[in-house]
Task: structure prediction
Amino acid sequence: MTKPIKNAESFGPVVYPDEAAEPILSPAVRAALLNWLEEIWAEDELKEVGIEPRRKALFYGPPGTGKTTLAHHLCARLGLPMLIVQSDRIISKYVGQSERNIGELFRAVEAGGPYCLFIDELDTLAGKRIDASSSAGHAHNAQVNVMLQYMERYNGLLIGATNRTDALDTAIWRRFQLQVEIDVPGQAEREHIIERYLAPYLVDPDSVVALARDMNGATPALIREFCEGLKRQIVLGPRLRLPMDWTDVLGRLTASIAPHPELVQPVLWKDAARSRAAKTFNWPLTLSGAKEETR
Ligand SMILES: Nc1ncnc2c1ncn2[C@@H]1O[C@H](COP(=O)(O)OP(=O)(O)OP(=O)(O)O)[C@@H](O)[C@H]1O
Ligand SMILES: [Mg+2]
Result:
């Protein structure tokens, strides 16, 4: 192996196990990933019977569903720092440079590791191969071919993420031994996410259910922003002498934190008049461990 010129950190930030948070997942996804962890932990036993654990997984799904958070959490469970590769540090407009950068990346990771290699926005690095008659097409295909070769040879843990499966090269897709869809959460997961991000405030169960229903279609990232926005309102609203009735607070929140216009618009945003949480939310919230109201 030729000695790398760059170190792994020059391809993106490294995040460590102690900074990881556990994402809230659907039971099916959680079970699939737990099985995968078990498989990696059982490496020695598997080797005794002539097989290797799978080490390459692709997470795909809409933005803000927790792909990066999940990859970080899994690496943390394995005790590994995770290198988040940024595609702009690889892609170059100079002929042949992107391929050289890909080679440098894998060499740097192998020399400096162990790391878990996390390649975000994989579709930008390994988009579908195209007509090679133009020079741009030729360069792109060369880059994807090099990526395929290095992925094939790489023996460490590799997680790819994309929210554009339509754009991803099909052979790259197949190089992953697990392909896991990380979709928007269901009702039970939304309830759990709301409770997590509203803590230390307590919300009565009916209000949590209503709010989660009216957020059907929302990503965890949006739910988190909403809940943190609500806490900000509770703390800052009175200081700013803002009206603090539930309708006022909710109106300010939904006006300032919203889903991307091209994504599903949950009832809370699309049609507040039909939202049950807009009418029956138990407000104000109480702090856990404290009896007094927080308004
Ligand atoms: N399943 C989840 N449970 C709890 N929190 C979550 C979950 N998914 C995402 N979050 C929170 O939402 C935010 C965005 O998550 P993250 O960046 O992991 O999403 P992503 O799928 O990687 O998005 P992108 O496709 O834009 O890269 C993070 O702050 C994270 O804490
Ligand atoms: Mg991400």
In short: The domain at 187-287 is CATH 1.10.8 (Helicase, Ruva Protein; domain 3). The mean pLDDT is 93. The radius of gyration is 23 Å.
